[in-house]
Amino acid sequence: MTSTMPAAPARRIRRLPDRQTTDRFALHELLDSELVGHLAVAVDGVPVVVPMGYARVDGHVVVHGSTGGGFALRAASARLPVAFSVTALDGLVYARSLFDSSMNYRSATIQGVLEPVPADETDDALLALSERLMPGRTAEVRGMRRKEVAATRVLRLALDDVVMKQRSGGPSEEPDDGEDHTNWAGVVPLERRWGTPVPSGLTPEGTPVPDSVIALTTRSPRSDILG
């Protein structure tokens, strides 16, 4: 796998093109840091966007849904083109004017056709998805029953047609830009952390919090102070 992603002419960013990146490792870092993406498709001429949990498995984004229906499954069956978008907000950029204020972010939009994961790879794909969303939980609960697997359809989207854009650093400023530099400007980084676990209503009092939950809630939050 090469370290760069090809950029088709139709996908090149025209507005602030210097913020586009073709670094495949930056794409993987973004996809591996987030949990939710937005899947878009036109169904019967109507655009539909649905947030979905996902996981990156090698060169694909993997999602899942019920075999009972859903626009994603219909799109997969009809091989309709879809778009899947993931965004990470890293901070707010406070400039000395609202016009120059901005955000620090990383975003990627993947276009292509959803394909069913082959039957002999389904279990591994579901395991990868579970471990991405709830690391370590698989070892603490019962395994999936065959009827549950049969009721679940696993789809994947190749990371072949991707546009990624990002911004980092502080506000644009120059010593002679005519602004009042006594007015504060800078970056407010966004930090996210998990809260205190809340047991379900049927969990007996005193039941120990499992290791997977402890590991999740005590993990150091990502804190990128950019600029």
UniProtKB/TrEMBL annotation:
> Pfam families, per this entry?
Pyridox_ox_2
Which Gene Ontology molecular-function terms are recorded? Answer: oxidoreductase activity
Q: Which InterPro entries match?
A: Pyridox_Oxase-rel, Split_barrel_FMN-bd
Gene3D superfamilies of this UniProt entry?
Electron Transport, Fmn-binding Protein, Chain A
Instruction: List every stretch annotated Disordered.
Output: 165-227
Q: Which UniProt keywords apply?
A: Oxidoreductase
Determine if S-adenosyl-L-methionine is one of this entry's keywords: no
Q: What is its EC number?
A: 1.-.-.-
Instruction: Name the domain of life.
Output: Bacteria
Q: What is this protein called?
A: Pyridoxamine 5'-phosphate oxidase family protein
